[in-house]
Amino acid sequence: MKQEELNNHLFNLAETLLGDDHSLSYKMRGNSMxxxxxxxxxxxxxxxxxxxxxxxxxxxxxxxNILVGHRxxxxxxxxxxxxxxxxGDNSPxxxxxxxxxxxxxxxxxxxxxxxxxxxxxxxMKIKRFYALYFPKLSLLFNNLNLRVNxxxxxxxxxxxxxxxxxxxxxxxxxxxxxxxxxxAFFQGILPFxxxxxxxxxxxxxxxxxxxxxxxxxxxxxxxxxxxxxxxxNAILSEINGxxxxxxxxxxxxRIYEMLHKKHASLDLSHYENPAEQDKIHRAVQEASFRPIKxxxxxxxxxxxxxxxxxxxxxxxxxxxxxxxxxxxxxIPGILVKLKFSQKAYKLKISQSTKEREMYYFNRVLTGFxxxxxxxxxxxxxxxxxxxxxxxxxxxxxxxxLRKSELRxxxxxxxxxxxxxxxxxxxxxxxxxxxxxxIGTVVLFFFAFQRGYSVLNExxxxxxxxxxxxxxxxxxxxxLNMPTKSNAQKNVQSHFSLKKEIKIENVSFRYExxxxxxxxxxxxxxxxxxxxxxxxxNGSGKTTLIKxxxxxxxxxxxxxxxxxxxxxxxxxxxVCENITAVFQDFALYNIFALENIxxxxxxxxxxxxxxxxxxxxxxxxxIIEHLPNGYNTLLGNLFNGGEELSVGQWQxxxxxxxxxxxxPLILMDEPSSALDAASELQIINSLKKLxxxxxxxxxxxxxxxxxxxxxxxxxxxxxxxxSGNHQELLALKGKYYSLFHTANDKIYS
Length: 748
Ligand code: ADP
What we know:
By secondary structure, the protein is an alpha+beta fold. It contains 22 helices and 18 strands.
């Protein structure tokens, strides 16, 4: 049903209910009643004829196809027909006029929480009076009220999330945080203590004329105290450096721990969805520095608060109203910062995709995997251009924002300087008229200069904390990203593979794709047998392997291990019982032995077992000939590493898979990078190793899999044929033509 039809339907239903003397309540979704009813208030509507309406009534009528509650401000008679005008909070002028047929009913009371307010009550009558006779003033107050409320709400929500974020990131660093806070407090106070001791010295020097023993003692004491305060300040700054480092390390440790754990629990689909990739990108990028920055800002705030307390005392001792001037001087600058920090955040969000694009082009330009093709085809300029375009767009947007901030920031600074100039002039005048001493003038100059920067820093820190917190909220929302897979859910059944794996009517579509990758696929994989999936590229074979591992859930249909639904077993348990070689196997720049041992990381690495797996994969001899045998670092990322060929890396991946002793072996194009002899060796090993196991193998080389017990032929997400090699050839269908095309190619 279209939205308009639905609204009509609801409107008629409401009218009928009211007509039948039923009462009707509705919940406010926004602040749209004049004077304001808040979101969540429940208005009680009564039936009333349009002729009974009086100016000032709060009425419910249909406006632009929705029901709204407004205050009636005018009734006129046009061509013998009543025309009404009503007004809502959201419109500074009056809403469109409407006729009787749009009118539904009148509000007689409303409920907020447990309190019910009658429209005929005294309070509402006063509001009505104001709304009618001082509409502009009433609207102004309403809007002001709404604005204050929304600021207050935003502030409380922001404060709550700030508290949560801080406690989450400092969860393991309470001691360091406390020490740093105490140091920050004293660091805030000490500069002022220094100013006071200097003031005392100056006053002493200007007032003392003769230097007897007593005066000398006072002078030396003052000097010693000043020097001591300097010393304490310097020592505190050193200690602070130490504790900051400790705090920073502990927070960074915590953040990366959360980041990595979350990554480990994310579904594969999160990495394939551009919007979620933006979110992940922001989280990873911000996690590296935001939390530390925020903690430092917080410590800065503590420092500023301590300083401000001292500052107030100093100003009160000179002239209290000068502190008001100081505040007024910095406020415009703060407002500018607040406004632009919000804008900067919005800009950052809007730039996420472009930024990822830029990083990608940077990776192409600087990454080793792209270097060969780049040199050969000479497309360095192409990617450089793409990178520069993305970078220029991002930079320009940032500069534009800075430009608009700069104008306002300079104006606010000019304003501040005028006030400072005025204050300095006033204090000089006080000295000239003999009201204060020269020491007090110096104290004021220092205090004013320090106070200006302290207050500025304080408010700057607050705006920074707000900005950091907004970014941290992004990080938190990344941590709270829901995972669809059932990896974490309670395992209800055990994994069993004694009979078969049954794939029943499984259909699946990737989130980012419009086409179905698998369409009602039915497959039976008998336990202890080797089953092959063959078919053209993109026909869905790999997708089914991914579903078997539980990386994705079927949109419909079931995957059953010995009759038990995989969802009841849980992805973690399913994975524990599978070993696999993926088409896009990974290269790990770690030792050769570790590379194989990763296949069963739950137990300590067993060298003999690893050697057997390497032998089966045909990589044993190559490892033995490496400079340190199984203890050789692989890859060329780090010093002393030995790079392997692609085929050798693939054999390492196969050895890793063979190292794990599991009942189900999945192999997706395991010999794509291998020479014919190696391929034969892998197949022979697989035959040996899978003797008492169940194996699924994908290969585009039909000769590689013709020995399989059962072969399924895939085509565009469907299973076209199944049977063993001979049966499929006899069918003279898709398999037959694939087989002959492949052979023709080989022998032509
Ligand atoms: P095969 O293994 O038979 O070559 P796949 O199972 O990899 O085929 O792919 C089946 C279909 O799913 C193809 O149309 C492919 O474009 C699509 N596809 C594969 N992986 C993804 C993905 N991560 N996101 C979206 N579509 C995908």
